[in-house]
Amino acid sequence: MPVKKKSNKESAHVPQTRDASSVERLYLELRERAMRYDFRPGARINEQALGREFGVSRPPLREALNRLVAEGFLDFVMNKGFFRKAISVEELYNLYQVRIALERRALFLAVQNATDAEIESLRAYWDGVMAHASGMSIGDLLLADEEFHRRLTAMSHNKELSQFLEQVTRRIHVARHIDLEQSDWNARAFNAHAQLLDLLQARKLEPALLALSEHIDLSLKRAVQITKEMVAKFFLQDQTWSSGQAAAESSGPNGTAKAR
Predict the structure, then answer these.
(1) Whole-model pTM?
(2) What confidence score (pLDDT) does residue 256 get?
(3) Alpha-carbon gap, residue 74 to 66, rounded angstroms
(4) What 3 state SS string does 129-171 have?
(5) What are the residue boundaries of the HTH gntR-type domain, all occurrences included (predicted)?
(6) What kind and span of H or E run contains 70?
(7) CATH architecture, domain defined by 89-224
(8) pLDDT value, residue 184
């Protein structure tokens, strides 16, 4: 019996699989912009402009934006769209509290589960960072510090804990960048890593937990100040933009003042 060919109409209804890799790349790029506050706090996300820039349709763009909503970078308002979440002193403070809780639990588990080889591997990584620290930018130092804490958490052998901490790390990234610009803070914080590794290798739980808490408290105590600095920065930028716009609107095409 001859095989019946499918009609063009039938073929047209075959579902098309979305390119997951392209959505992931789009999400990562938008997340990076959100972390750097390229999207201004409280500002509406221009979906049409992003669609044109990346050459994507609305569904994959919205999928990426919804992921950023779930991770706490954006807000979604019905019938209005997506907005960069405003800077909040309370929110940043709470995120630092969550970070302390997660890292303390990770360290508790690492004392039990981490192998000596894993600890030595982390020590070798950090020694390498410190050997080149003098020539590293603030951004590179921050990434190295985040990687240290990421690897420390991984030694808990609890992947779910690591994933939650990763979300917190992303959301406090800009605030921590400001914090690392304080040179006196850098020396104290980075030296604390070696002390923490010594205590972990000796399996001294309580001293290790205390050292970790004090280490993160250096950032926690500055959280409110850092957030105020960020708010002031964006406020001044907004004032400068508004003044420039007002001057442009009050001038004619040749820079002369408009008649009133």
Answers:
(1) 0.69
(2) 40
(3) 8
(4) HHHHHHHCCHHHHHHHHHHHHHHHHHCCCCHHHHHHHHHHHHH
(5) 20-87
(6) helix 58-70
(7) Up-down Bundle (1.20)
(8) 60
Whether 205 contacts 112, CB under 8 Å: no
Q: By three-state DSSP, how is residue 84 classified?
A: strand
Of the two residues 238 and 136, the one the predictor is more confident about is 136
Q: Could you tell me if 214 and 100 are in contact, meaning their C-beta atoms sit under 8 angstroms apart?
A: no
pLDDT at 235: 55
Nearest Cα residue to 173 out of 211, 141, 151: 141
Contact 76, 66 (CB under 8 A): yes
Query: Which residue in this structure is represented by tokens 């095989």?
Result: 3
How far, in Å, are 47, 53, 82 from residue 62 at the CA level?
8, 14, 9
Averaged over 150-161, what is the pLDDT?
97
CA-only gyration radius of the chain, Å: 24
Question: How many CA atoms lie within 13 Å of 49's alpha carbon, on the beta-carbon side?
Answer: 5
Question: Counting runs of H as helices and runs of E as strands, what totals does the chain give?
Answer: 12, 2
H or E stretch including 248?
Answer: helix 223-249
> What residue spans define the domains of the chain?
21-84, 89-224
Tokens 């004619």 belong to: 252
Number of Cβ atoms within 10 Å of the Cβ of 238: 14
Q: Which two tokens stand for residue 157?
A: 């052998």
pLDDT digits (tens, 9 = 90+) for 57-99: 999 999 999 999 988 889 999 999 999 988 777 888 888 899 9
Tell whether domain 21-84 is in CATH 1.10.10.10.
Answer: yes
**Angle ∠(104,110,116) on CA atoms, nearest 5:** 145
Burial class (CB in 10 A: 0-12, 13-18, 19+), 196: buried
| Residues in a beta bridge with 82 | 76
